[in-house]
Design goal:
Rossmann fold, three-stranded antiparallel sheet, Dehydroquinate synthase-like, alpha domain, 2 domains, binds adenosine-5'-diphosphate, alpha/beta, 348 residues, 22% strand, binds zinc ion, globular
């Protein structure tokens, strides 16, 4: 079992390991929680794990109820969000009660936003069950739902009081979802280098999974915490994301997020190598990392993507801040004028 403590506007513990879900009752008690717990989950995850979590809660004196919605990003909308709120109200939840997200990023975003806004905020616990949610969305406090006008258009920053990731839950995660998580993992590997890179390079296994997740969460924690002191460091987490968001927009989200990020990292590595900013050795190490993880993809050519860069949230006036790769474990923020982008990306 591994622990990472995140210091955001509030501090909370991230517990990672085999059997971590069985700790839910005692951990909630330690936090001083009592009463009702709404377990929010989706139609894939609920049948697998919701009863087990509920039993654990009952054993420790809580009153759990389960709210399940249809799995998939399509459910992450105002309608499902309204359903969760209505359910909380009908069941008589008050500010001393708790919402618990049990699922991937979709569940975490939706349940987190419901928790952030019901009665102006009730206690929130996140139990991510996908690799992508474990290493990325479960830390940082972003919650949101989509609107027909765009993704994550309405949301709030709301920190969980505890994140529990049971590595045993990965056994049922479909291969495509593992690969999607690995795509975001490649980002951490290139940002950090060291052990995260070595683990992914050797290949994720049930033996190194706990270490990999703990190291990724810790990397995100460090970058997010540093942002409060040295402005803008959080932008490093956008490595590969300018390209990824353009791919997602252009393909109408047919390419999953993590896979698009892996391609984004690949493009940025190729760009840095062509520009003589990244050594041949590191460039090929990144290529091999991608290859070994079934992520050495050739998606939309960069020329096609550039027009979609500007729609990116990262655009500030006429300057785009790109995360560039100077080496494995050495990424930087580089400002490029929007009109210079085609020239800047030549050869990538
Ligand atoms: P994300 O990739 O952001 O976590 P989702 O929440 O949509 O996005 O999760 C991806 C898919 O994986 C969903 O279909 C979800 O139901 C499914 N899923 C998540 N965790 C598990 C798990 N441990 N076992 C089986 N399926 C899972
Ligand atoms: Zn991402």
């Amino acid at each position: 079992m591994k622990n990472v403590v995140v210091h955001a506007s509030t501090s909370y513990e991230v517990v990672i390991g085999s059997g971590a879900s069985a700790l839910i009752g005692e951990k909630l008690k330690e936090l001083g929680r009592t009463g009702k717990v709404l377990i929010v989950s989706d139609s894939n995850v609920a049948p697998l794990y919701a009863e087990g979590v509920a039993d654990e809660l009952v054993y420790h004196g809580f009153e759990p109820t389960i709210f399940t919605f249809d799995a998939g990003e399509e459910s992450k909308n105002l309608s499902t969000y309204g359903d969760v709120l209505a359910f909380l109200a009908e069941e008589g939840f008050t500010r001393t009660d708790t919402v618990l997200a049990l699922g991937g990023g979709v569940v975490g975003d939706l349940a987190g936003f419901a928790a952030a806004t019901y009665m102006r905020g009730i206690h929130f616990i996140n139990m991510p069950t996908s690799l992508l949610a474990a290493i990325d969305s479960s830390v940082g406090g972003k919650t949101a739902v989509d609107m027909p006008q765009g993704k994550n258009l309405v949301g709030a920053f709301y920190q969980p009081e505890l994140v529990l990731f049971d590595t045993d839950f990965m056994k049922t995660l479909p291969y495509d979802e593992i690969r999607n998580g690995l795509g975001e993992g490649v980002k951490y590997a290139v940002l950090e280098g060291g052990e995260i890179f070595s683990i992914l390079d050797a290949g994720l296994t049930s033996e190194n999974l706990e270490d990999f997740i703990a190291l990724s969460v810790d990397a995100k924690r460090r970058i997010v915490e540093a942002d409060e002191k040295e402005g803008g460091q959080r932008k490093l987490l956008n490595l590969g994301h300018t390209v990824a968001h353009a791919v997602e927009t252009l393909t109408e989200f047919v390419v999953p997020h993590g896979v698009a990020v892996a391609y984004g990292v690949r493009v940025m590595a190729r760009l840095a190598y062509e520009r003589g900013e990244l050594s041949e050795e590191d460039f090929y190490k990144i290529e091999e990392l991608l290859l070994g993880n079934d992520l050495a993809l050739e998606l939309n050519p960069v020329e096609e993507l550039i027009p979609y860069f500007s729609a990116d949230k990262k655009k500030a006036g006429q300057v785009l801040t790109l995360v560039t790769i100077a080496g494995i474990g050495d990424c930087r923020l580089t400002n490029v004028n929007v009109e210079d982008l085609p020239r800047y990306f030549e050869g990538a």
